[in-house]
Amino acid sequence: MAHYEFDLLVAGAGPAGCTLALHLAAKGFRIGIIEKDIFPRQKICGDALSGKVLNVMKRIPGGVYEDFIANVEKIPSWGIRFIAPNHREIDVPFILHRTGEQPPPGYVCNRDDFDNFMFGKLSDYPNVQVFQGERVDKVVTHTDHVFARTQNHEFRGKIIAGADGVHSTVRKFLKGERVDKKHFCIGIRGYYENVTGLHPENYIELIFLKRLLPGYFWIFPSTGGRVNAGLGIMQDRISNRRENLSHLLDDIIANDPLVAPRFAHARLIGKPGAHVLPLGTYKFNRSGNRFILLGDAGFLVDPFSGEGIGNAMASGEIAAGILEKNFSENDFSASALATFDARLQRRFSQEFRTMSALQRLAGSEKLFNLVVGKARKNKEIAELLSAMFTSEKERNKLSQPGFYMRLLFK
Ligand SMILES: Cc1cc2nc3c(=O)[nH]c(=O)nc-3n(C[C@H](O)[C@H](O)[C@H](O)COP(=O)(O)OP(=O)(O)OC[C@H]3O[C@@H](n4cnc5c(N)ncnc54)[C@H](O)[C@@H]3O)c2cc1C
Questions:
Q1: In this structure, are residues 187 and 178 in contact, taking their beta carbons and an 8 Å threshold?
Q2: Is the pLDDT of residue 79 over 70?
Q3: Is residue 376 located within the same domain as residue 270?
Q4: 37 lines ligand 1 (CB under 6 A)
């Protein structure tokens, strides 16, 4: 069995792993990135790229953002349409006061293409070696190195980044704890042609159906005249009801009074695919002796919207920011890497509190109907909803208990 040695081992070449690797590759570190699939690989996702993704991408060295804007197929999206359980809807633009040449605030981009683009960028760096089609199946930390193994190779590194998704092997070996079902959502999506009633500016649609709350059904306009449509539901709800996910999707598309007419002439392309989302409601240490956990491996998905790409990339960027110091001091102890947790905490704790509050709100049909009803009539609330997606300061108001009381009397 061949042996390799690197400064940094990265398990998983999704958005989190690639963001970390690209930042540190530009600084000259020797990186071994180990990925179980072979790119271009399929990735089950809603395909919505928020402003957060674009902002993190702009800071990756090597003109990654500019290349993405110029060369990757995608469509711009300018806002969100919310549909409450009582079928009342509100359109919320991402940018309230648009000026002529403003770039789009978000995109919908097939994840297979997006991830393949990011993965391709690794080949710009001779100091990055990629091992595709190899699953990390064992990880052990020692006093002076970390060891990882695949079926073909053995690896030594100073540190390992677990960016290997929701079922992370790195997390299982180095943390091991079981996580309660309430911290997981499960989603299923398919691609469809000939869906009607789409917003002219490609607003992404979140349809809060009573049977899915606090989850929702989504319709995201995609490239080639298709839509990415699917649903997300809390995992404890689906197993309690023993409902089969793809039957649930088919049933909504065929019979829901709001959804079905829009799919009357739709054609499913390929097969729907399902996957699990690990929510940021689960609080734990995402670092320890010679390891850190990024993205889905570290439960960083927004508990309300299900957005995870931006947070995964942000965690890769944060890790790159702190690891340089660990390399220069050759200290990868749990206490030295605790800075990573502290930075994540600073970046995400308020946001997750807010989004958990919204998740709870969305669980109450009446309260959700009320907020959308008020927002339809009150410009200030509508503007706040818009700011939620663009301004952290405004969004944080939603986690203050008094906010909902004030809302009732507006
Ligand atoms: C149905 C659904 C819809 C979603 N919609 C959206 C959306 O519209 N917008 C959004 O922002 N987010 C969305 N998300 C969440 C988003 O997909 C994830 O949060 C995001 O992919 C996390 O990125 P990551 O790099 O942490 O993990 P991943 O993208 O999962 O990448 C992990 C990589 O690790 C590899 N890997 C796994 N195990 C091993 C191993 N043992 N050894 C080596 N490699 C391994 C995998 O093959 C994979 O390439 C959705 C998720 C689901 C399930």
A1: no
A2: yes
A3: no
A4: yes
Ligand 1 pocket: which of 296, 304, 318, 344 to mutate (most atoms within 8 A of CB): 296
Q: How many CA atoms lie within 13 A of 294 on its CB side?
A: 29
Same domain assignment for residues 221 and 131: no
What is the best residue among 36, 134, 218 to mutate for testing ligand 1's pocket, by most ligand atoms within 8 Å of CB? 36
Say which residue the tokens 């789009």 belong to. Answer: 104
Residue 171 lies in a domain: yes
Q: Would you say the CB of residue 44 lies under 6 angstroms from ligand 1? A: yes
Query: Which of 241, 276, 311 is where one domain is finished?
Result: 276
CA distance 342 to 111: 30
Instruction: Give the bridge partners for 141, in sequence order.
Output: 146
Distance, CA of 363 to chain centre: 21
Say yes or no: 226 and 248 in one domain. yes
Domain that includes residue 137, residue range = 2-77+103-179+281-351
Q: What is the mean pLDDT of residues 248-273?
A: 97
Structure tokens that stand for 165 in this block: 């998704």
User: Is 96 part of any domain?
Assistant: no
CB 410 within 8 A of CB 378: yes
Cα–Cα distance, 409 to 286 (Å, whole number) = 41
Residues 206-219 pLDDT 10s = 999 999 999 999 99
Residue 195 in domain: yes
Q: How many domains does the structure of the chain reveal?
A: 3
149 in the same domain as 7? yes
CA distance 133 to 148: 15
Identity of the residue numbered 338? A
pLDDT for res 157: 98
- Per residue in 26-75, pLDDT (tens digit) is 999 999 999 999 999 999 999 999 999 999 999 999 999 999 999 999 99
Which of these three, 227, 250, 276, is where a domain ends? 276
Query: What is the model's pTM?
Result: 0.95
Tokens describing residue 366: 């009446």
